[in-house]
Amino acid sequence: MFLFEKHAKAVALALALTLVGCSDLGTDGTQDGSQDGAGITGSDAVSVTATTATISVSLGSAPESLSSTSVVVFYSDAETFDVEDAESVSSTKISKAGKCSISLEGLKWGTTYKYLAYAISDTSENPGESGEFRTADVSISLSVDGSSVTSTSATIKGTVTGISAADRGALEFGICCSEGEDSEPVSYQATTGAGPDFQVTVEGLNNGTEYIAVPYILQNGTAVYGKELKFTTSGNYSSASGDLDLDSATDLSSKENANCYIVTEGGLYKFKAVRGCSGEPVGSTSSTDPAGTPAGCAILWESFGTDIAPECCDLIEKVCLKNGYVAFRTAGTFKEGNAVIAATDAKGNCLWSWHIWLTDSPSENKYSNNAGVMMDRNLGATSTAPGDPCSLGLLYQWGRKDPFLSASSISEDIPAKSTIAWPKPVAHNNTTGTISYSVMNPTVFIGYNLETKDWQYSQDNTRWSSSKTKYDPCPAGYRVPDGGEEGILKKAGFAGNFGFDGNNKGILCLNSSPATWYPASGFKYFDDGSIGYIGVDGYYWSVTPSRTDAYYTYFNYGGYVDPAFSNYRSFGFAVRCQKI
């Protein structure tokens, strides 16, 4: 077999080459015997970068023979050069002076290569002298300016040395960031071709937490890592705990206890540290709920419900647990959004948590046929305006009191941002699928039981009910509505074909006075907790069980509404609260 037939790149020019048996070639690529025609009188590697090299070749040939001559360069980073295993590049661009330059690309940085050039004409193949070169070394380092580090993000600067403009198109470099040595890293990649100086803004971090950032360079799927950089996010929520004057605080629980409290203006507030609408003190002995001695309280998260993450304490400035009350003070500048406050034991374990809903005062809608009265917005929404992402509100697994974030868009499945990086969902088992676990881990989405599709291991129908339970997520005076054939929306006639507003992504319900907007709220998937179908379909929970499922109101982008659908209880759906 002719040597160059094994290197298709080298013979792609379809030259009429003289066949020479492989046995005529030495392992170093030289050829025994002499040939007439063009020959290489010199070759040298010039313009070497981290990923490229240019081989300059001189041929000793009669000018008339150059038009039928090509040059092939074989190269390899193997310790022992063997032309049979080498890569090759060819060229027919030979000057009248017998000069030829061949560019080698996609090389490994900081690597020694050996090469051999061949001159090939119609009648001969002549090797030149072998040579070697080393590609430039590349390194990457990181730095972070303390002023760029917030409670949820950090801007990290990277510098790459030993890299040319030509190299930048062949390399990808950026940052991997993780929380602790054993945590799974999240990759924050810089754009290919950037540099030599670049920066990456890492978002969605936990407050008051040390992170490890490691720079990487990626070429052909192989990564090389640089020296790690450690930084700590600011705004640790522990600084939000302090002493507050309970005597001066407005008592949000003076008329009724709840898991959700509405705040419409800035100020100092308090509520009883009890489990939901019950009178059970947090931490007291219970067969289902976590017990323990309350020792303090903490802000778990805050969100505007948009694509902008608040800084820690942007909504709630200070919290304290005192004399059987949880007290909090809003930020100096009142901002609308949602937050969750938890009562904790001495080890920081969550014993109970409450949703603080900072918004303008919700109004009431009377539904047709004396069906009942409901709130004018989704639970957690800070707007009732069609097309406003803040009208989406929050999402809930059936029977759980604690909310999850919806989307920051009315038409894309992009989660709203908050002050924390939300933990990964957990698989369902006899430990995670319990009331106690759900209360102690209010930010953790719980996967489904394979048989019942419920997040709860031992299924029951008492978590939510027409008689408001201590796990009901609605504020005082409201509860999750009845559903199914006897539900408020079915009685009101909110069923059948309605016009779907494709621009604002939702349905204007005319079965209430005044008319009320229902955004296509989408859902959180029952298995992995990711959001989906935002702006496409609407899903609204009721308290009414349906065998192992539960009833909900459903509508789609075609305008079809059915208030008596049923589905898995492990889904995360929106809630529109009914007046008690």
Set out the fold topology.
Blueprint: E1 39-46, E2 53-60, E3 70-76, E4 87-91, E5 99-104, E6 112-120, E7 125-127, E8 131-134, E9 139-144, E10 154-161, H1 165-168, E11 172-178, E12 186-189, E13 197-202, E14 210-219, E15 222-225, E16 229-232, E17 250-251, E18 260-263, E19 268-272, E20 296-303, E21 316-322, E22 325-330, E23 337-344, E24 350-358, E25 364-367, E26 372-375, E27 394-397, E28 404-405, H2 435-440, E29 478-479, H3 488-491, E30 496-497, E31 500-501, E32 506-509, E33 512-513, E34 516-519, E35 523-524, E36 531-532, E37 538-546, E38 549-555, E39 560-567, E40 572-573, E41 578-579
Question: Main attributes?
Answer:
580 residues; single chain; elongated; 5-stranded antiparallel β-sheet; mainly beta; 3 domains; Immunoglobulin-like; disordered N terminus
N-end to C-end Cα span: 89 Å
- Estimate the strand proportion: 35-45%
Largest sheet: 5 strands, antiparallel
Domain module tally: 3
Report mean pLDDT, rounded to a whole number: 87
- Estimate percent helicity: under 10%
Which structural class do you get from the secondary structure elements?
mainly beta
Oligomer: single chain
- Summed up, the helix count is 3
Characterization of this structure:
It is a single chain. The chain has 580 residues and is mostly beta strands. The protein folds into 3 domains: 3-134, Immunoglobulin-like; 139-235, Sandwich (Immunoglobulin-like); 239-579, no CATH class. 2% of the residues lie in helices and 36% in strands. The strands form 12 sheets. Strands 3, 4, 6, 7 and 8 form a 5-stranded antiparallel sheet that branches. Strands 11, 12, 14, 15 and 16 form a 5-stranded antiparallel sheet that branches. The longest helix is centred in the C-terminal third of the chain and has 6 residues, at 435-440. 46% of the residues are buried.
